[in-house]
Write a structure and sequence with these properties.
By secondary structure, the chain is α+β, with helices and mostly antiparallel strands. It is 25% helix and 16% strand. The chain is built from nine helices and 15 strands. α4 (226-234) crosses α9 (353-364). The relative contact order is 0.14.
C-alpha cells in the first residue's frame, strides 16, 4: 500500500522544491530563515544548510547493505519481513512501515543514505516507536525524504539532532523498545510536501520499494578505489557505477565540485556547469578559453585550494585509518585538506575518477565516532 504518491505529486513536488530551496538559503530566503524547523524539529542554521549531504544511491538498513536477507559481516543471519505496510483493518491498525527481524536483537542499524539527523538519542523515547532515529535526506533533484528507524536498543544510539551522517553510518542496534513484542527494526520512508511539517505527518511510501528503486549496486570490484567510487555514488557526486580507473574528465570533476558546494540542479551543458562554478569562485574564468581534455593534478590542486576557501562541503564521509593510508598512497598526502599543495605530487599519469572520489572523501571526512557537529 502507498500513501502520498498520487497525481498532485507535481504540485507537491513544486511546493517541496521551493520549501527546500528556502531552507537551504536559495532565492526568496528572508529573515525567517533562522527560525525554520526541518521536519518540524530541527532549526537549520546557515552552516547546517550549506553542509546538508545529498542522498544519491541507498542501502538497506539492516543485514547486508545490498541484500538485507543476507547477514552482515560477523552475523550469518539475514533479515526477513515480519510485517509490511497495510491499511487499518478489523484485526490491526494501519502500519506505515516494514518490520524487519532475524530472530534476535543487537544487529547493526545503518543510515540508508547520507543526510542530517532530525531526531536522535537526545530526544529519548518516542511513544510507541521507543528509541527512534529520523534522518532527512536531500535527493539530487531537490526532493526531500525522511527515513525512520524505530524500536532501537536502549543506549545504542550515538547520533543526535543536527549530526550529519553518511550512507552506512551506524545509527544504533536492533532492539524492542516502545510497543514491540519481539526484537525487530520498524523502518519507514516518508515523503513530505512541506519541509517544515512534522515528519510524523508526512505521507508514507513502501520503504522496500523506495530503496529497491535507488539501491546501490553491489560490486565484485576489489580494486583499492572501489569503496570510494561507491561512497561517491551514495553521496550523489557521480553516477552509479562509474568506472574508477577512467581518466578524470572536466564534466565529471565539475559535477563533483557542484555537489560538494550543495548545488541541486546541475546545468545540462559543460559550459553551464563551468559558468556556475566560476560564479561561485571555485573555477577561474580562464577555463572558458581552455581546450577540454583530461584534468591534470595541477588543475585539481588549483580547484581544491579554491574549494577549501569556501570552508563548508555538502558531503560526509567516515574518517578512518584506511582513508588516510589510501590518501597518502594514491594522492601523495594523508591530509589533502591540510596540505593541498601536496596533492598528486610524484603521481604517475593523470588523475583518475577513483582518485577524485578518494580526494572528495578525504575532504569530506568527519569524526567516525559520531561526535555531534554543531
Amino acid at each position: 500500500m502507498r500513501r502520498g504518491g498520487s497525481c498532485p505529486a507535481a504540485r507537491a513536488s513544486l511546493v517541496l522544491a521551493l520549501s527546500v530551496a528556502f531552507l537551504l538559503g536559495g532565492p526568496g530566503r528572508d529573515a525567517r530563515a533562522s527560525s525554520v524547523r526541518l521536519a518540524g524539529l530541527l532549526p537549520l542554521s546557515d552552516a547546517a544548510r550549506e553542509r546538508w549531504p545529498f542522498s544519491g544511491a541507498f542501502l538497506y538498513p539492516v543485514g547486508d547493505a545490498h541484500d538485507f536477507t543476507s547477514g552482515e559481516r560477523g552475523d550469518s543471519t539475514g533479515f526477513h519481513v515480519l510485517r509490511g505496510m497495510h491499511a487499518a483493518n478489523a484485526d490491526s491498525p494501519e502500519h506505515l512501515g516494514v518490520d524487519l527481524g532475524n530472530g534476535h536483537g543487537g544487529g547493526t542499524v545503518r543510515a540508508v543514505s547520507g543526510g542530517v539527523v532530525v531526531r536522535g538519542a537526545a530526544d529519548g523515547a518516542e511513544q510507541g516507536f521507543g528509541i527512534c532515529v529520523v534522518i532527512a535526506h536531500r535527493l539530487p533533484r531537490g526532493e526531500l525524504a525522511y527515513s525512520v528507524y524505530a524500536h532501537l536498543l536502549e543506549g545504542s544510539v550515538p547520533v543526535e539532532p543536527g549530526d550529519r551522517v553518511w550512507a552506512g553510518r551506524a545509527l544504533g542496534r536492533v532492539g524492542r523498545s516502545g510497543r514491540a513484542t519481539t526484537h525487530h527494526l520498524h523502518f519507514e520512508i516518508r515523503l513530505p510536501s512541506d519541509a517544515e511539517d512534522r515528519w510524523e505527518h508526512a505521507p508514507a511510501t513502501d520503504p522496500l520499494e523506495f530503496l529497491a528503486a535507488r539501491l546501490a549496486r553491489a560490486s565484485a570490484d576489489t580494486a583499492w578505489d572501489a569503496r570510494y567510487v561507491e561512497w561517491a555514488s551514495l553521496a550523489a557526486l557521480i553516477e552509479q557505477r562509474s568506472p574508477g580507473r577512467t581518466r578524470l574528465e572536466p564534466d565529471a570533476w565539475w559535477a563533483m565540485l557542484a555537489r560538494l558546494l550543495g548545488i541541486e540542479r546541475l546545468p545540462a551543458s559543460e559550459e553551464g556547469l563551468a559558468d556556475t562554478l566560476i560564479d561561485r569562485g571555485v573555477l577561474p574564468s580562464s577555463v572558458r578559453q581552455q581546450a577540454r581534455g583530461p584534468l591534470s593534478w595541477a588543475e585539481l590542486r588549483r580547484d581544491i585550494t579554491r574549494l577549501e576557501a569556501r570552508g563548508r562541503l555538502a558531503a560526509s564521509a567516515p574518517h578512518t585509518r584506511q582513508l588516510a593510508r589510501d590518501a597518502k598512497l594514491h594522492l601523495g598526502t594523508a591530509s589533502p585538506r591540510a596540505h593541498p599543495a601536496a596533492i598528486g605530487r610524484g603521481a604517475h599519469g593523470e588523475p583518475t575518477l577513483g582518485q577524485a572520489c578518494l580526494l572528495a572523501a578525504a575532504l569530506s571526512a568527519t569524526d567516525s565516532t559520531g561526535s555531534h557537529e554543531p
